[in-house]
Amino acid sequence: MDQNEYKEYIEENKYKIKNPASWIGYCPNRIEDDDSRMRCFSQNILFGRYIVRNGETVLAIALYEPDRASFSDKVENDHCSIVMSMNYYNTHDRRAKIVMVANLSKDGVIKYEAIKYFEDQWIGTAEGLDNWDRFFIQVSFLEFVNGEKVEYNYC
Length: 155
Hints:
eight-stranded antiparallel beta sheet; elongated; 155 residues; single chain
């Protein structure tokens, strides 16, 4: 989803809020690129939570986008795996970072890992083995933290 799609989603669903304290998890699309290694990474990462702010229900979101310049890959374990990583930053607060890691074994199995930091402090880690959707459900539990800047969308 891009930012326009988020805004359309919010507009279409603003009257359907059942629990104003609920969080939102989502499974992003993979990066489409001529470099096949990029398919191990998501186009972005989104955290969302309905909250009450100044007496109104709002959707607070933190959108993380990849820093392609941070991409790295290396061969490990005597050429038995390739470990790739890339940083993602909150578009509203660069103090918030997620390091995405994809470890591709020689038999084609991918182990995913997302490590979240805020102000260089470790917040949490999500891991998954070869199941993109299940992995990103776990990533969504990392959500935003106190003090992290987010975008507010009034419902």
